[in-house]
Amino acid sequence: MITMLNKLRSLVDDLMVSCGGWIEAIIIVSEDGVPIAYSASIDLKPDYVAAAISSIAGATSAVLELLNSRGFDGIDIRLRERRYLLVRRYQDCYLVALTKADPNLGFINLALEAHLSSGI
Fold this sequence. Notes:
This protein is α+β, with helices and mostly antiparallel strands. The protein contains 3 helices and 5 strands. The chain has helices at residues 2-18, 46-66, 105-117, and strands spanning 23-30, 35-40, 74-78, 84-90, 93-99. A 5-stranded antiparallel beta sheet has the order 2-1-5-4-3. A hairpin with a 4-residue loop joins strand 1 (23-30) and strand 2 (35-40). The radius of gyration is 14 Å and the shape is globular.
């Protein structure tokens, strides 16, 4: 368990660097809403963010089920201040990233895909 936690922390740190400064915060959240690892250049409360993401993921899954879909791999939410909240499924967790304003989403998505597809 310790090595898995260290690998997740390393993943978060690697993504913060790989995303070229476009990310303000990354949090890995368990499906039941517990923050596992995070890094942020802004002030945040990881417990509250993790609980909220768990609710967003649950609500999204419920809507998709009503539409006869099998679930989701990611959610992109555009915020009014021109930032994005990105949620990606990763193993049995969610990876959550908050971007800076007017981010290079293509670059960020390439970095996320490269890191998340390689697994731990």
